[in-house]
Each structure stands twice: as C-alpha cells, then as structure tokens.
Write a structure and sequence with these properties.
Blueprint (H helix, E strand, L loop, with lengths): L5 E3 L5 H12 L4 E5 L5 H8 L3 E4 L5 H8 L4 E5 L7 H17 L5 E4 L11 H14 L5 E6 L1 E2 L7 H7 L1 E4 L9 E2 L1 H13 L8 E4 L6 H12 L4 E4 L8 H11 L7 H7 L8 H9 L4
Parallel strand pairs: 1-2, 1-4, 2-3, 4-5, 5-6, 6-10, 7-9, 8-11
Helix pairs in contact: 1-7, 3-4, 4-5, 8-11
Length: about 280
C-alpha cells in the first residue's frame, strides 16, 4: 500500500493543515478532501502535489468516493458549525463510508478526556463516535488532543494591545496544551506506520503551563507586560464552553506528559515558550 495515498478530511482546517504538512514533509502521497477546491488552502496543497477531492463531512457519497483505494484516513468531526448532534451524525457518516470503502486504517481525532464522562457536550459527542468505532471491525486509532496552543489566538488583540491574557483558570492551575505541529507529526507517524497503533487510544499534550507561566512567557516574547486575568466562569454563557472550563477547573486533562514524551521523543513536543516565540515574537 506504499503507493496508495493517505486521505486527510477537512484538509484546509487547523488540524488538517497540520497533518497534511507533516505528511508532505515525509514525502507521503496525499489526498486532501476539501469543501472548496478553489480556496487558497486547496490550491496550495495542489501545488505541493496533493490530489484534491471535493466533499464534506456530512456527505457519505463524497466521503466513500474519496476513501477508495487509500492507505489510511485522518478524520475529525466538529460541533462548532451545527452542534453536537450534527457532529455525531458526521462521525457515523465517516465510519459508514470507511467501512464501505474498506479503509485499511482510520485515525480519528477526538479529544482528551472524552472517556471521562465529563458532561462537556463536545467531549461527549466524540465519546459517542469513539463507541461507534469500537463496535465495528474497522481498524482504527483514536487520538485525543488537549487544548491547542492556538486557542490563545482568540485573544490576540487583547494580548498585544492591552497586555491581558484572559483565561477562566486560577493563575497557578496547569493547563495541558498541544501544538498543532506536534499533532501533525504524531498523526503522520500513526498513518504511515499503523501496526504499532491500531486499536489504541492515545491522548496528546505538548506542555502544561499555568496561566501565570503563559503570561510571563508572553511578556518576554512580546517585549511588553502581559498579565493573566481570571475570567469568571459565570460570564461564559455558551453551555458547552462553560462545561468545558468547569471540567478544566476540576479534574482536567490527565495526560502523563513524561511518559508520552519519553515514548515518542521524535515528535519534538513543543514547549509553550517556543510556540509563543514563533507566534508572538518579532516575526510572528
């Protein structure tokens, strides 16, 4: 199957871009499923040699067609456009298409903590999809990303202009986080060498800085003072996000970073300081 492509769903999204970049760096044949083949992201992938196919996570026919004759598939679902019920439907559509196309290996990007009965809607929806996979004979691996470093970019203007990092956590509470590049590197490893990983569920985190640590790093890399302000949980009106931050203030993610990083040193595991320097530094 060395000559068969690896299919990445939602290839121009945040996770998809990280995985496609890692696969291309490794010289793997790539098939990229996108909604808009004329987008800048799709055009860029095509220029790099990717086979661009059009489809969506909701369209079983387009997924089945894209999955034909591939070596493996990287899949994810999202609740943030149409809600968690739609996300579960996406997951079921993906799994059914993979079975129909006889995909040799499906790598599903879920979320860390989805197996903890957290009560967080977008964690629980992924737990349903994980259960669907477990009930099938489809060879698969589940990855569980923690909070992405990139999520801090939602407050970029406030960090840069007001020197404030807003997080609904105490200043000394560690938050396990992941660099998307590390996700891409790990996923590429699993997609290219599945034998070691089939049937496993692996949660991923690059670092676990506290909000106080993050503010100190951002102060250093921006050259201007940045302080952490603890957002009140009661001010978070979205029920899903409120539940997530309650979870992160409670049991939180449970990744054994030392064990993970020792087992897979080749990933590199980016410290928050390195990511912040790349993102907020003079050339960021």
């Amino acid at each position: 199957m060395a000559d068969r492509p690896i299919l990445v769903l939602a290839a121009t999204g945040g996770q998809g871009r990280a995985v496609t970049a890692a696969l291309l760096e490794r010289g793997a044949p790539l098939r990229a499923l996108v909604r808009n083949p004329m987008s800048d992201g799709a055009r860029s992938l095509a220029e790099k040699g990717a086979d661009i196919v059009t489809g969506s996570l909701d369209d079983g026919d387009s997924l089945t067609a894209a999955m034909r004759d591939v070596a493996a598939v990287f899949a994810l679902t999202t609740p943030f456009e149409s809600g968690v019920d739609a996300e579960v439907a996406q997951g079921r559509t993906i799994v059914a298409a993979a079975e129909q196309a006889r995909v040799p290996h499906l790598v599903f990007s879920s979320v860390a903590g989805a197996d903890q009965n957290t009560g967080v809607p977008h964690f629980d929806s992924k737990a349903v999809i994980e259960a669907e996979l477990a009930a099938r004979e489809l060879p698969h691996t589940i990855l569980g990303p923690t909070y992405f470093f990139d999520n801090a970019l939602g407050g970029t203007d406030r960090i840069r202009t007001e020197g404030v990092l807003d997080l609904p956590l105490p200043p000394d509470r560690p938050l396990q986080q992941l660099d998307r590049r590390d996700l891409g590197a790990f996923a590429a490893r699993v997609l290219l060498s599945p034998e070691r990983y089939v049937g496993q569920r692996i949660e991923l985190a690059s670092d676990a800085p506290t909000p106080e640590d993050m503010a100190a790093v951002l102060t250093q890399v921006t050259g201007s003072p940045v302080r952490h302000e603890q957002t009140a949980l009661d001010s978070i009106t979205d029920p899903d996000m409120h539940a997530m931050w309650q979870f992160l203030n409670g049991p939180g993610y449970q990744v054994d970073l030392d064990r993970l990083h020792s087992a897979f040193p080749e990933v590199g595991w980016t410290p928050f300081a390195d990511w912040a320097g790349r993102t907020f530094g003079p050339t960021g």
